[in-house]
Amino acid sequence: MAESVMAPMVGKVFQIQCKVGDKVKEDQILIVLEAMKMEIPVMAPVSGAIKEIKVAVGDTVESDTVLAIIE
After folding, report:
1. Of the candidates 28, 20, 24, the residue with the CA atom closest to the CA atom of residue 51
2. Which of 19, 29, 39, 53 is deepest in the core (most CB within 10 A)?
3. What does the angle CA 2 – CA 15 – CA 71 come to, to the nearest 5 degrees?
4. How far is CA 4 from CA 7, 42, 50, in A?
5. Which is it for the CA torsion 38, 69, 19, 43, positive or negative?
6. Predicted TM-score of the model (pTM)
7. How far is residue 5's CA from residue 25's CA, in Å, rounded to a whole number?
8. How does pLDDT run across 31-49, given as a tens digit for each residue?
9. Rounded distance, CA 2 to CA 37, Å?
């Protein structure tokens, strides 16, 4: 079953630390957002493989935007 990785807040995608096909563990940092001049790590909610990354570095995202899909 696919699990969505969601943005916890409004911010800009600062760094993507995974790619499609990567195996990831629960709580592994996948994406780093920049918000209010702070770096906010976004962790994997579950273990699995990255099926899709829906953002690119530099993108501005809203709260609850789907950043990636883990399967």
Report:
1. 20
2. 53
3. 10
4. 10, 12, 10
5. positive
6. 0.94
7. 13
8. 999 999 999 999 999 999 9
9. 32
